[in-house]
UniProtKB/TrEMBL annotation:
Protein name in UniProt: Arylsulfatase K
Gene Ontology CC entries for this record: extracellular region; lysosome
Catalysed reactions, semicolon-separated: Hydrolysis of the 2-sulfate groups of the 2-O-sulfo-D-glucuronate residues of chondroitin sulfate, heparin and heparitin sulfate; an aryl sulfate + H2O = a phenol + sulfate + H(+)
Species whose genome carries this gene: Halcyon senegalensis
UniProt keyword tRNA processing present: no
Alphabetically ordered keywords of this record: Calcium, Glycoprotein, Hydrolase, Lysosome, Metal-binding, Secreted, Signal
Described function: Catalyzes the hydrolysis of pseudosubstrates such as p-nitrocatechol sulfate and p-nitrophenyl sulfate. Catalyzes the hydrolysis of the 2-sulfate groups of the 2-O-sulfo-D-glucuronate residues of chondroitin sulfate, heparin and heparitin sulfate. Acts selectively on 2-sulfoglucuronate and lacks activity against 2-sulfoiduronate.
Subcellular location: Lysosome; Secreted
Domain Sulfatase N-terminal as annotated: residue spans: 13-326
Keyword Secreted listed: yes
SUPFAM superfamilies from the UniProt entry: Alkaline phosphatase-like (SSF53649)
Stated family: Belongs to the sulfatase family.
Amino acid sequence: DGRLTFHPGNQTVDLPFINFMKRYGTVFLNAYTNSPICCPSRAAMWSGLFTHLTESWNNFKGLDADYVTWMDLMEKHGYHTQKYGKLDYTSGHHSVSNRVEAWTRDVDFLLRQEGRPMVNLTGDRKRVRVMEADWQNTDKAVNWIKEEAINLTRPFVLYLGLNLPHPYPSPYAGENFGSSTFLTSPYWLEKVTYEAIKIPKWSSLSEMHPVDYYSSYTKNCTGEFTDQEVRNIRAFYYAMCAETDAMLGEIISALRDTGLLKKTMVIFTADHGELAMEHRQFYKMSMYEGSSHVPLLVMGPGVKEQQQIPNVVSLVDIYPTMLDIARIPASRNRSGYSLLPLLRAEAGGEASPTQAPPRPSWVLSEFHGCNVNSSTYMLRTGRWKYIAYADGHSVPPQLFGTYSFSALTHRLISLNAGCLLTGFLFVPDLSEDPEELSNVAVKFPVVVRSLDNILRSVVNYPKVSSSVQEYNKRQFISWKQSLGQNYSNVIANLRWHQDWLKEPKKYEQAIDKWL
């Protein structure tokens, strides 16, 4: 969750190496994923293209294995490249349940697809290495820096992908388990300030946006949760973030010990956040801040220290930034923009103009996968968050922002209706509605129309939504045919088995009707 990297979110857990990067580098205050789920988000980061352009629709559908990434281009231009840990940006991965749930999201049924979110405390106060696989990959990266990078005669780029702070598998939850367990040790839990943990407010089930209700139900979150359960889930998640921070620390320490730190650019980010029971959900797959707002910190030669950048940016900006750092000419047909002009800006303004086109005042995120029964599109500007669904008509949009009057007298505001307003200007500020509980789309139709026009100029989202629906049917039919007579047994025993097996014929008939 990117909000943990600045105030007030950083009051909940001690993240010393995030703070180190802030002290000696720059933090982006409004960085967003381009798709809040593992594979499509990473596909956007590696390609520099929006999700609808690469058709990375879900965790099963990412980039082709031979896709040329920014790292491939850096290697071609003389960089020594090395990758460790989680990559997860190509097609063909994740569980059968995960892909079938995504393909069948338009089916007229409602099934719990995850285990109920829970916590698990393991080990004692001496247990530091909880997520052993991540630590092993961190060790590999550290050893590579100390044994290989230090002796290189050409520049290097090193990538380390961590699984933390992703929730852990829950074995009781069926095929390939799902991941609804927040697990840590007392060592990390002590890094969390329980008193600073906010219990999120929830809308009643009957008042929830229809897509949110579907998400909450399929994530097994519509039952009763005590405040203590919610507080623990959030605390354990923050503790998992503290363990992640320690791995970042190992990399920073290795660079410092080898004398490489002062001449190395370090970038820390994530594929998405974690709702941690905000909006009665855990996991991601949502455009709410907990899910879509990611950390982005950069330090290194030429990067301004102790800088906080408010501009909205997103993961597609990594591609042109990496090429810019390496002084490799980038093609103009990418979705992102280099961050270097912002990173090297003087106080009080952006860097001097370059030949690059001006950065837009918005970022785009979209979602087409499981646990959400509609393609979702977010346009985030400095003042608004607009969320459109499906064809733009069948599902109501959302608009978030809080409003105060600003005395801009005699200021003329042109409205789509053709009239003019004189006097006061509504100035929205998401920071005044941090929990995003007030959907004001109905109150501000002019703003909705304006933002929707911008969104449609970026992506023909009704057409994309239709393409995803067609893709889902094609994929499901192909998968069903591949199973032959085993179809009924296999589909009944996916992650939704606890609900499916109560009325298997009913759910098979719902699929037949959809097809």
